[in-house]
Design a protein that fits this description.
alpha+beta, 2 domains, 5-stranded antiparallel beta sheet, 3-stranded antiparallel beta sheet, 26% helix
Amino acid sequence: MKEVKFILAIVTLIIAFNIRPSSHEINTTPICSETYVENSETIDSVIIKECFYKNHLFKSVGIPDYKGRYSYEYQIFKIVGTDTTKTKNSNFFKDKTKLIEELLNKKLKEDYNTDLKYPDLKNCVKQINFRHFNLDEFGVTFMSKDIMAFHIDYKGVSGACFNVSGNSVLLHLNSLKVID
């Protein structure tokens, strides 16, 4: 059923969003749009967000569960002329991948250690198999025209601990001048 929702979201996205910048444009500021698609299984809509930036399309699809909590799927596509091909985060960030990974993992580790100190969170946080995360494991989108968000899903955390099953690191585009 999740695949059907995702396919529905993609088809809707293709039909609804024909705002792609022309192939000769290189966006130095992200151009984002968000749409909501009715979901027959819950009262909450599927959220589809597309951001065009530096000849790439950053797409996220948020699917709600029966409690209205959203889980997201992220993809990045390279745009060359009229062709759009799926790519990886590391291909976008190129030779700066390791530097960005270090920055993201440092922030995640700080958050993890802080959350372990809270008695109400401790048992849930202990379910996280914390390790070094590769850049390609992150979902990437934009929170605003100058804030890039990197989302990580800590797989294996129980449903009762949904509130700690993932984390996000927000970085200002000025701090990411590594993008050519």
